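Re-run with default settings, no changes from the original entry. Doing this only to confirm the output is reproducible before filing.
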Amino acid sequence: MVDVKTSKALSWILRHGAEREGLTVLSDGWVAVQDVLKQPNFRKVSLDDLKQIVAKCPKQRFSLKDEDGQFYIKANQGHSMQINDTSLEEITSDSELSEVIHGTYHSHWGSIQKKGLSRMRRTHIHFAPGLPGDSGVVSGLRKSCQIYIYINLPRALQAGFKFYKSANNVILCAGNDEGYLPPEYFLKVVDKETGIV
């Protein structure tokens, strides 16, 4: 039976826990479905259930592939495990995107204002190519976010920061050596309610 709990468990294992649980993770993040289904949280889950989760996930978090009858599944982004995801499309020009936006909350703004955006335990900082509800925005920016940080993409690219687009249209950046995108690369910051920060 497919439910939110199963989808969340799948997200956790594919983004963070596969290696810890003894699963083989291919260099680009793919994990054999048969190995996932042997895990305690997935014993009542079938391949058809996983296909349904992948197809119906509103944020398009997962990809599934069939290689000669052997199915593999991966998270499209959000990893804390080090992977070499060859499906990420590098953004080489600011003309490819009209907006790059990171969503956050008032409680984090003080730290972000001083240090910049952090990838924290993940491999990338996440951005969206617009606001929730805009065309092409399915993930990368929670609707509950209180503050929108618009990135000066031309300046960041010129400074050598690498940006990528995932299969579900999330914009990703690993930041600098410390994992930060500093505040000097913020174009503008908008409070969702007041319009002012």
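The mean pLDDT is 87. The domain at 89-191 is CATH 3.20.170.30 (ADP-ribosylation fold).
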